[in-house]
Amino acid sequence: MAVPWSPRRVGFGAGVVALAIGLVFAVGRLLERDGATSVATVLAASAFVSVVTVAAAYALGPRAAGGLRALFGWRRLPAARTLGWAALAFFASFAATLAYVLAAESVTDRAVPAPIPASFFDELPVLTVLLVVLVGPAAEEVFFRGFCFAGLVGRWGFWGAAAGSSALFGLAHLDPALMGPAAVSGFVFAWVYWRTRSLWPVVLAHVARNAVALGVAASL
Q: What is the pLDDT of residue 62?
């Protein structure tokens, strides 16, 4: 998996995304202090971060190399193979996450993240589903697997690249209860991407994971 960008560019891209997340966090705290936080502002912040992640990856991955498809592994696989790898990524990441949460619960009572507030489903359900289930997973896979992992694996090898990109993926979730599960899932997704050289299976698996999580949250 040879790509024309280096770990240094990956680090720079991670810094750009970190700045975007930090900006969103700071603005969110100001709005919360003034009592101006709403479902719309939270979803707008999520959309902003998604746009920044894709833009940073595209800008730092040489555009002359063939655009998004060539840069980020939008390689088509036969439908059956794509769905098979997606199913494997989904169930493997779910099992790994469950094992992590069960282990974490033995040492802390904060291993399970708080559910999404009901107000998201009451006020802007369609936009919530669009951002959480579709836009977010696609943007995250482009950046963390298609850009970060691919940019690290040539120098660091699979294990180093998977660990590094997964750690970044976990840290990007901010909530301590989400960092570990996200990092574990990210490692599984990195392996599937490495084996298939295609983002489609991991995007589908990520979409399915978020859809299940959102469905569970909506039913509570």
A: 57
Helix (H, G, I), strand (E, B), or coil: what is residue 19?
helix
Encoding tokens for residue 101? 């949460």
d(CA 173, CA 19): 14
* Contact (Cβ atoms closer than 8 angstroms) between residue 136 and residue 211: no
**What distances in angstroms separate CA 76 from CA 13, 198, 201, 213, one per listed residue?**
26, 7, 10, 27
Tokens of 84: 């098979």
Q: How far is CA 115 from the centre of its chain?
A: 18
Q: How many CA atoms lie within 13 A of 77 on its CB side?
A: 21
Residue 74: its pLDDT value, please? Answer: 66
- At 64 the pLDDT is 41
Instruction: For 57-107, give the secondary structure using H, E and C.
Output: HHHHCCHHHCHHHHHHCCCCCCHHHHHHHHHHHHHHHHHHHHHHHHHHHCC
At residue 8, the pLDDT reads: 92
Cβ density class 27-51: b for 16+ within 10 Å, e for less:
eeeeeeeeeebebeebbebbbebbe
How far apart are alpha carbons 61 and 56 in whole angstroms?
8
Which residues of the chain register pLDDT less than 50? 64
Helix (H, G, I), strand (E, B) or coil at 191: helix
Look at the alpha carbons of 106, 186, 156, 10 in this order and tell me if their dihedral is positive or negative.
negative
Q: What is the pLDDT at residue 126? A: 92
Say what the pLDDT of residue 5 is. 85
The whole-number pLDDT of residue 105 equals: 74
